[in-house]
Batch of 2 targets.
Target 1
Amino acid sequence: MLRTIAPLCALLICSVAEAQVPAAPETKSVPREALNTRASPLNQSCGSMAGKQNAKSGFYWVTLDDEHQVLMYCNNDTTFDNLKGGWTLVWSNLRGGRGKLVSDLHWGASIETLPRYRGAMITQASQDLQSFEVFTGLRWWRRIIDAGKRREMAYVWAHNYGDLNQVDRQAGCQFDLVPTDGWMITFKQASCKGIAGTTELPELFTNQGGNRWSTIDQDNDKYPGSCASLYGGGAPWWYHSCWSGSISGGGELADGGQSNGAYWKGMASKWGEADGTGAGNGWLYIR
Ligand SMILES: [Ca+2]
């Protein structure tokens, strides 16, 4: 009898532990007709639209696998390495605000979660990238880049709210994720280049390659304390020591709030400026 109970208990413990992970805002079920999306779902990512002249940017239903069909934002405007579009938006952060999607996110959820959204796209057919935020678990990043086979990332950054056609900076780079080594991120430095606005690469590309993923419950950074617990509002990141150039910055309560935004470089305690310093708005795309 014990032999049959033991694995069951193990399972129960496992599910209780998972249930204790603080709940973050989840993607709500949205009727398809409520959103400006196209009829047929995309297979695995936005990547199938890469290079297609008439493909539009916006929300599409994506069949990530047999069990998961989700809404994802596809960027079909950004060109990198002579290929236009096919980018899936996996993470974005707008400056300011409280209760971010990634705040105090635990390891398990940071890997497994389907795209979580916060903002206007939940209730209206918004195509405005400054009206919502999204975070997608790294497991799905892996799936998207395995499907696309490009293994490229684009980081888009704007220092202030405004016209999306006037984003300050865009850069791209070939990258990879290593699930078996703490979800380490690596960048192929020779491939990294500015796409628009600047030739100055983001610190994500220049300084965070080779860093493992850290969360508030799994410290893989190079700092004596836990960067994820101290900064970023408990946000996960490929921390070194600690958050210079992070998409979550210093977090919700740090430095009077002015570090609460996406960083292109550095950790200056101020709102974003056109020279790439300070807390702005950031979008990470992969394909
Ligand atoms: Ca540490």
Note: Residues 219, 221, 223, 225-226 surround calcium ion (CB under 6 Å).
Target 2
Amino acid sequence: MSTPTSLPIRTVTDPDVKATYAVDQSVGATAPGDFEVVRARDLGDVVEVMRWAHETRTPVVPQGARSSLTGASVAIEGGVVLNTEGLDTLSTVDPLEGLAVLGPGVVTKTLKDAAAAEGLFYPPDPASAAFCTIGGNVATNAGGLCCVKYGVTADYVRALQLVLPGGEVVRTGHRTAKGVAGLDLTGLFVGSEGTLGVVTEVTTRLLPAPDPALTVLATFGSLEAASVAIVALRRERHRPSLVELLDRAAVAAVQALADYGFPLDCEAVLLVQSDRPDHTSEDVQRYAGLLTDAGAVDVAVADDPAEADLLLAGRRALSPALEAKGPRYLEDVCVPVGRLTELIRTGREIAARHDVEIVMAGHAGDGNLHPSIFFDPTDPPSRQRAHLAFSEMVTAALRMGGTITGEHGVGTLKAPWLAQELGERELERQRAVKALFDPRGILNPGRVYWS
Ligand SMILES: Cc1cc2nc3c(=O)[nH]c(=O)nc-3n(C[C@H](O)[C@H](O)[C@H](O)COP(=O)(O)OP(=O)(O)OC[C@H]3O[C@@H](n4cnc5c(N)ncnc54)[C@H](O)[C@@H]3O)c2cc1C
């Protein structure tokens, strides 16, 4: 299908600029031959595009910073990319009500910094916070590094403004601290991956700022030993604000980028933090004792904030570090924390059986791992084996009572497994809900629901 030329709004015409909006960060994403890009400047632009697209039955891909790892923001053949990065006004940070009101194009770190300037805290912390947008975070219900204590994006979205196919502008939720009138449509839109409406304004909850975090770094003789320690940490009354796991290869990849202070002579590293006001020193000392008792080989408390920042920067550099190692399928499975050891063991068995390298790392305090499954792009059988290993990791997580995606979303990457997790009847119900908002199926078709 070729895009009708009568799109009532200015599109990007420079082919080089246009190409930068074609793909996201997912493995193997390719640009379609024929698509248009609109960079929305205000609500009116979004309304115009959504009205026209509905009338002409043209696919629309809502898009933020294109950091999706699942293909959810890749341009579609014959469709329009509706990029909302330009809707980047942060109009309100209100300490009394504990909220912020902002456009979907505001970068996550910008919101975090603006909140911090008022003595407040916006907790969701994807490792991509320096460049991803709040609109993308809302649409994927993004998680990140401090979910183990603070939860995910959904826990902080109070209200939304959206534009539906056809151009209707709707508001969901409430600005007040409480509000139970009607169904929770805000919750429905959060995590809907651009399949129900285009987010044009977000009202988020903010917390009082915690203390600057202190960090414990513990090394282990095996991944299994580290996962036993994670279970012990989860039983803590004062839960850590961060529990991140890196295996030997992940540490080596990070240290190959720069010296972030990670030790290379161990099988696994756990980074653990406390940000509890007035209790960080006490907490990290207690965590250090607990990690030692749980079998850590070495435990160090980074009481110098610069040292702690460096370690965290190393953790944030993990994704580019592993990318530099070579092409990979990136997993995002999440299991009950009590099954983490089993997931790690199963990952090892799968790697050995298919003769592929699987690097284990992730937000292990939530049971959410991001195993990287490497392949040689010049060797098709190696790619096939890696894909088989990827598929087996997903089904193993489901078998353990987990989910196919902890935070990255379904996109196109995980769409083949959605029915396995939800069941056919639930999938049909969800498709019916989508049809209520998007009867012509123009919003991000082929993503999440596959058809
Ligand atoms: C290095 C790296 C680290 C990452 N770490 C994490 C992590 O720790 N935790 C985590 O959860 N994710 C992580 N991600 C994934 C990604 O950053 C998140 O999914 C993020 O929320 C996407 O935001 P974005 O602005 O880039 O959105 P995009 O990639 O542009 O879009 C993502 C989805 O949101 C939809 N969307 C975007 N804007 C709108 C809008 N205005 N209205 C409706 N739908 C919209 C798109 O259609 C698509 O479905 C990481 C990615 C990278 C590259």
Note: The pocket of flavin-adenine dinucleotide is lined by residues 24-25, 61-69, 72-73, 84, 104, 126-128, 132-133, 135-137, 139-140, 142-144, 193-194, 198-199, 319, 407-408, 444 (CB under 6 Å).
